[in-house]
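pls design
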């Protein structure tokens, strides 16, 4: 019985996520998005932290074909983080405002 108590007690699990790198707050219209460099700081319920790369995360797609405010959701072991980004309006070449 003692062995089960020790084995079941204190299982490390993620509590929160924070983006370290790889996601911008603004994207250009029709910009190709590459999340392969995303790194997230995971804080676990035991107080430890670890850095996790894109290969271990689920990241929603970002449609940059339409301008506006968007949301990217990053998920790791059941914990999610929403990142709010902006896709800028397409610029029109030659339409310069002095």
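designed seq:
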């Amino acid at each position: 019985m003692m062995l089960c108590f020790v084995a079941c007690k204190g299982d490390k699990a993620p509590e929160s996520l924070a983006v370290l790198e790889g996601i911008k707050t603004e994207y250009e219209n029709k910009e190709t998005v590459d999340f392969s460099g995303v790194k997230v700081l995971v804080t676990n319920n035991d107080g430890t932290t670890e850095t996790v790369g894109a290969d271990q995360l689920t990241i929603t797609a970002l449609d940059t074909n339409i301008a506006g405010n968007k949301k990217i959701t990053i998920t790791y072991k059941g914990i999610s983080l929403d990142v709010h980004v902006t896709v800028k309006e397409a610029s029109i070449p030659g339409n310069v405002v002095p």
